[in-house]
Automatic annotation (TrEMBL):
SUPFAM superfamilies recorded: NAD kinase/diacylglycerol kinase-like
Protein name as catalogued: Putative diacylglycerol kinase
GO molecular function: ATP binding; kinase activity
PROSITE patterns, per database record: DAGK
Gene Ontology biological process terms from the UniProt entry: phospholipid biosynthetic process
Domain DAGKc: 1-132
The keyword tRNA-binding is assigned to this record: no
The entry's keywords: ATP-binding, Kinase, Nucleotide-binding, Transferase
Record flagged with keyword Transcription: no
Native organism: Desulfobacula toluolica (strain DSM 7467 / Tol2)
Annotated InterPro entries: ATP-NAD_kinase_N, Diacylglycerol/lipid_kinase, Diacylglycerol_kinase_cat_dom, Lipid_Phosphate_FormReg, NAD/diacylglycerol_kinase_sf, YegS/DAGK_C
Amino acid sequence: MKVALIANPYAGGKKVGKLLPVIEKKLAAHHIDYQTHLSCYHGHILKIASDLNIKQYDAIAAVGGDGSNFHVLNGLLSRFKPEKIPPIAVIPVGTGNSFARDLNIHTFEDGIRSLVKNNPRWVDVCSFTQGTKKKYFVNILGLGFATDVAKTAQKFKFLKNFSYLIGVFYRAARLSCHHMELEIDGKPVSQENCFVEFCNSRFTGGNMLIAPDAEIDDGFMDIIIAEKVSRTTLLTTLPQIYTGTHIRHPAVKHIKAQKAIIKTWPGKTLSPDGEIFGVTPTTISVHHKMIRYLR
């Protein structure tokens, strides 16, 4: 078995750079032939993935967090047809590692075991538009309060999951809502909005169970909409995200859909798979069982 090992040495507070020799040693112990590609700048992973000769590899491993996986996925899909792409492995050494949880991968050892087992699973991929261009995500795309939290959390990545808690309290103190017009599978929704999350998988921010009913191969995204609420209501409800019980709150809507078109006033920044990238308006679509991931 030959694997393209694409690593972001700065992911997880530079944890990847420290663990990479351990990961390479364990792969060699399992007689897995690997070729390591290190990113040198933000967005470099996308170029590395798009430049691969994928015919050489039996799998492509993203070593890092959700953002590293996002760039590997988009790099591959920017050049290759989905059915031609080898299975992708996730070796989670990043800040959040949310998507890996839905593959039952919680540690870098689990990621290595997925390569050893070589048991691929077809999963859904979501796309979102930016003008005439299209990008992809497998975890979650958010906007509003949740994205503002992600912006703040990026500054404290060295604190791992605690970075999200810092972001929550910082942004709650400066809470602002926006007007949203959303078309979900042809049905309009218009309201004042605190945040909205388009979820392919269940978790965000590491272990926050934002979409407890989401499945990565059911052909639907789970849309979580939080209406305009007070700071007090927001802060008292947010802890419920860790158990998934927030979806029972009267200010929260949970909708399964295959396509959504969203416009906001003012325009809002997007956060696909934890990356700060893109703005509204955008169209989000589900592509059923588009790509293979190792589990």
